[in-house]
Design brief:
Blueprint (H helix, E strand, L loop, with lengths): L18 H15 L8 E6 L2 E7 L2 H4 L6 H13 L7 E7 L3 H9 L4 E6 L25 E2 L4 H18 L1
Parallel strand pairs: 3-4, 4-5
Antiparallel strand pairs: 1-2, 1-3
The structure holds zinc ion (ZN).
Length: 167
């Protein structure tokens, strides 16, 4: 590793990941889902900018209707944190969470959620609902939307386009 210069480098080993870099990892994770015929959605959980869990959609692989990337990543993160309370955790997910997943984020008292592409058909963090910012619920989750949204959307478009071509 070069010691020349003092230019900040957010890709330096050990440096906390920015939202953008974390989303890059979530996109790589999402692509893994395609290998078993699942819709490419990926999620990484971070504490202090460091990854503690990384999962992708496994609904087809497992036959479990709740096996969305977010739910799986939250469960893994809870094991690492040692509690169901995930107030220190940021979840970075490639697609806007659905009602089930947004509900799980609230139930986990999540610290923050970052998503890529908006989901006008099922999104529950601003598109159809905003479960993360509903004062009637017992917890609100700060949302950052649209990080590398084009890449996340392209992954999905390619997946559904290829499926149509196969049909
Ligand atoms: Zn979901």
């Amino acid at each position: 590793m070069s010691s020349s210069g003092s230019v900040p480098d957010d890709a330096a080993p050990g440096a906390p990941l920015t939202d953008d870099r974390a989303m890059e990892l979530a996109l790589v994770e999402a692509a893994e889902a395609v290998g078993h015929g699942d819709v490419p959605v990926g999620a990484v959980a971070l504490v202090d900018g460091r990854v503690i869990a990384s999962r992708h959609n496994e609904r087809e692989r497992t036959g479990d209707p709740t096996a969305h990337a977010e739910v799986l990543a939250l469960a893994d993160a809870a094991v690492v944190v040692g509690s169901w309370r995930l107030g220190e955790v940021t979840l970075v997910v490639t697609l806007e969470p659905c009602p089930m997943c947004a509900g799980a984020l609230v139930a986990a008292r999540l610290g923050r959620v970052v998503f890529g592409a908006a989901d006008p058909k099922a999104g529950a963090c601003g598109s159809l609902y905003n479960l993360c910012a509903d004062p009637r619920l017992n917890h609100e989750v700060p949302v950052t939307a649209g990080v590398r949204a084009d890449e996340a959307a392209a992954l999905l478009t390619r997946f559904f386009g290829d499926r149509r071509a196969d049909a």
